[in-house]
Design a protein that fits this description.
Four copies of one chain form a homotetramer.
Chain A: E1 2-5, H1 11-23, E2 27-32, E3 37-42, H2 50-54, E4 59-63, E5 83-85, E6 88-90, E7 96-100, H3 107-120, E8 124-126, H4 144-157, E9 161-164, H5 171-177, E10 180-183, H6 191-200, E11 204-207, H7 214-225, E12 232-236, H8 254-261, E13 266-268, H9 270-274, H10 277-289, E14 294-298, H11 316-332
Parallel strand pairs in A: 7-8, 7-14, 8-9, 9-10, 10-11, 11-12, 12-13
Antiparallel strand pairs in A: 1-3, 1-4, 2-3, 5-6
Chain lengths: 337, 337, 337, 337
């Protein structure tokens, strides 16, 4: 941490800040510039509280030197983490493709969807049983019945299953049926839930909040990692901006940025990031070209009858064509499907 | 709902959309413009799924006619809802002032803070026992011990207590100690939690998410109202924007907008909305002038030693001076403290 | 400027950065922390280029110590600047009220509007002759004819006139008719225009860009100040955010923040900041309570016939009532109308 | 346009709105729903003023049926527009690569840069002579001297030149030296400038404002098109969001969205969109995979000495490697370099 004093800070204020730093068990290095005094802090290994320092008289700002995330940081863990799922080392050379409907609606729908995405080349089935919806009047998912149908679809198709968990007390229930636990965008900072999936030791798909920074995403991963669970796949799914023609704005910068900052694998959800099926193919290819380790795509056998997210779901034949293009782009950037 | 067809939509596509609308149990009114065909839908009382309609061939967009919130809407419930707390009808003429530290730290701190805010004129004590923090390495609150200290402070000062609840299974525990349950900004769309506080039948302080629209805030209130619990106080606490000199941007527009859209009382949290104590007084007065029904302000006896949010906490003497100014502005707009 | 080296920076890279700093005519102070090396720069009075430093090998980030604005800074010029207009010292105790229609439409309209706002208590007439419109198909203003009508209205009512100038070559034309030159939000970073109004030595109303930071607003003021023209009134007029129920989001935090950072007066435009006339009164009062030095409000004698911005324009009788409330709030915070 | 009346609108208010619509020369179609009355407007070919309608008593909202852009719309002009530049039909199968330094600094720099980007495979040289900078203390470009150096570099390398024009009165000067006129992000809504480049009949590179929606970008193109100049290349260059680790957020969704909405070619500027050279390669590939018609990339022979934007400039050898990867991704999506 570096403390920048105000232009009119007094000698006494500098002494007081220095005393406070030493009281925290750290060392203070004062350097007096032409206009401002700067105090560098050499720490003792424990995190420093920036706000306490900023409240001291005469202090203009405190600037952190270190990033606040550790276990998820590439500085801390330089080599890529790979998360093995269904024979694919996620984060390795081969891309992971998850696909399926937004929500499990009934047996026929999920089985038809599962077969369609498997036949098209997906490695994993997605489908929501517990649906966080902004309206209490919208379809909230089938709950445990949905989990059972997902398990049935897995049995029929051999595809492992990823599904969302929305409350800490449901983690063990969902983990009994699902291969990967999804933390949705709205729950990225639901810390009780992050602790619970950390403890579960199951692979976790952690979606970025729609208005969360990349740093906050890594801090949330930190909660899971702090339980010794490093089987985490990060997911960029679009952020909220002022642009209104699309549901969200896919932050494609975040893909290479995350690959630089962290060792965890990173996939992209182009369905939520655009909200329009017509934009899903182009952005899927962009994600792969940018270095994503995989994709999670909404596919519905009959999108015009979908109980949620129909507007952003691909029909199976469009999805199949897309995977052909994904394969070509993957090869162009040294990856494979 | 109104369906706007694409410019090149065919006659058959219009027929198909009409058929689908009737299949939903509604009536379709077609009107053919010079360039586009528009289909108005007369509903059957149940919500329509916009996305299903937008997925039909030839459809450009579907535009909702009605707002998606009902129980919280002023159309539905024209007169103001008042929530009685400690002899104040929140949402009536008199303003509610909640104040106290960000977090309960120890007995001495919370008692000192409680006495200070009571003496300055606050009606209610705030203080966090369970703290959602973006970093797992930050102070997470004292938990149940913090709740006990809040109860002790209430006993000592007579001030009722508002404190945050962060997981559904904690609701009954927190409700055993607190007078008002706070849903924090990060949990505004934690629907399991909203259901739980709805069932509790306790007064709820519902903070707007930093990434949430006013409409989404009202939809979250709708979750609580759907359990018959209408003792809800809404709280504007700043939204996330591109501006970096302040922690958040206080959306002052939201105060009169909410008063127009809903019958629920609306208060403002200038501490989180600015993140800087120097800006808290000016924005508190702005909130009252704009029609807010109250304020929730962070006050700490020793902000420079606070374990969280020190930079945005007022010292007791500043808070006391502020309440004098609040009183004057309140009178100027026909309210009282 | 402080340079923070990467965790794995080599000794040679530190030496190289130091050499580069000295080559820039500055001094480098190295301090080696546990995990990172920090290099403080003591400058030579000239601005340093952060990006050059960030491009050097081994550098993680460079952190500026000083704010980039100088002439507009309160550090540089501690006492308030007052801009005298029509007998009011803008930035002093008395508030400045500018009002009038979005655009000058014809003689009858502008005369009716001017008389109405004068009678209600406004000090100055606003009205656009050159209108920057996002669509080339929208009304673009009457041009010089509009300026003449403004001059006529001034003659009839005694109100000085503020109107927008949108191109450098128009500055002298507009200055021939107007008392205050307005730089609109879309032109806040039109530097050729800022230079031109700087040279004009006329009072300038500088509106914040809808997606500009407070720092960028002050940098734009700096362009005008660099020509020795300090007759600048800053205007907060709402920023663009994700919220869709209002046209913009009034950044009320910016009012006390600007008063802290700069010596220039600050007024608020609640009409553009909300886009809805129903929200204009509440936000006007909020602006005054927060410490604004004045208001600029759209008032149209017949808003439902206005050629632009009808939805956000007040009717004269509403405006008159509002000024009564403004007076009360102004007194409550030690100001006067 | 569709007018949605308030829930409590009276019969008289509906009649009044209808009368007003007919007075505008249009026809009104009333349809009464269960809760609201909807009035559809069949127009007369001229644009309707939404705000006038929204100001009428009893009106809740007016919803436009048609997009506000026409000449730039794909509905109006279904086939792709191609802009021929240096033997490349921009908007056709082959990608356009523009590259060069942010600013022209001196003869040696621009010649070295021009040769390097030509040798690496670029088709066009970029370089700023007039630089809009947020600070008046930053390097503002060499002005006409810079234009002459660009012309010299063109003569030496055969590369056509794109450079920014920042004021209407400079258009003819810049057009005397440059092959393509660039409208920078800060000037996207500088309408006087848009008119001037429209009249010039020269090819225009129109960059999206950092605060502008896709619709606003197309409205700005409309200004240029309204002068009969359709040689417009649109450029996505990143938008401003809350994310702070990158300078801007590349809105990759905008690429396929624009290709759907308009017939004009679309290129991407990954340098400004990220602000960090380490992220430029990945996002360049993403842009091509998403369907961009070209790239504009900052390349500087010695980025650590660049007078602006050093942090986001590629070294020539990195740029050369990148073009090899671009070629591979282009082929994977059916394009060529």
């Amino acid at each position: 941490m570096i403390v920048i004093m105000k232009a009119d800070a007094t000698r006494g204020q500098v002494v007081n800040v220095t005393a406070r730093i030493e009281q925290m068990g750290c060392q203070a290095h004062i350097s007096e510039g032409q206009e401002r005094t700067i105090i560098g802090i050499v720490g003792n290994g424990r995190p420093l509280d920036r706000e306490q320092l900023e409240r001291l008289d005469g202090v203009d700002r405190a600037v952190p030197v270190l990033r606040p995330f550790k276990l998820s940081s590439r500085d801390f863990h330089p080599q890529d983490t790979v998360v093995p799922i269904n024979g694919i080392d996620v984060g390795g050379k081969r891309l992971l493709i998850m696909a399926g409907p937004c929500a499990v609606e009934d047996e026929a729908q999920i089985l038809e969807a599962a077969r369609a995405v498997r036949d098209a080349g997906a490695h994993m089935l997605r489908g929501g049983a517990f649906k966080p919806r902004s309206s209490p009047y919208s379809f909230q998912g089938l709950g445990e019945e949905g989990l059972k149908l997902l398990a049935l679809a897995r049995q029929e198709t051999g595809l492992p299953v990823v599904t969302e968990v929305i409350a800490p007390e449901q983690v063990s229930l969902v983990a009994a049926y699902a291969d990967v636990l999804q933390i949705g965008a709205r729950n990225m900072q639901n810390y009780a839930l992050l602790h619970a999936v950390g403890e579960s030791q199951r692979p976790v798909l952690l979606k970025r909040g729609m208005m969360s920074t990349v740093e906050e995403l890594l801090m949330s991963a930190e909660y899971i990692l702090s339980h010794g669970n490093d089987r985490i796949i990060l997911c960029e799914r679009g952020i909220r901006t002022f642009e209104k023609y699309t549901r969200n704005t896919l932050d494609i910068n975040a893909v290479p940025l995350l690959k630089q900052l962290t060792h965890l694998p990173v996939i992209v959800d182009p369905s939520h990031a655009t909200g329009k099926w017509e934009l899903v193919s182009a952005t899927s290819l962009a994600a792969v070209a940018a270095g994503a380790d995989g994709l999670i795509i909404e596919v519905h056998p009959h999108p015009e009858q979908a109980m949620s997210d129909g507007a952003q779901s691909l029909k199976p034949e469009v999805f199949r064509r897309l995977l052909g293009q994904v394969r070509a782009v993957a090869q162009a950037v040294g990856r494979e499907l």
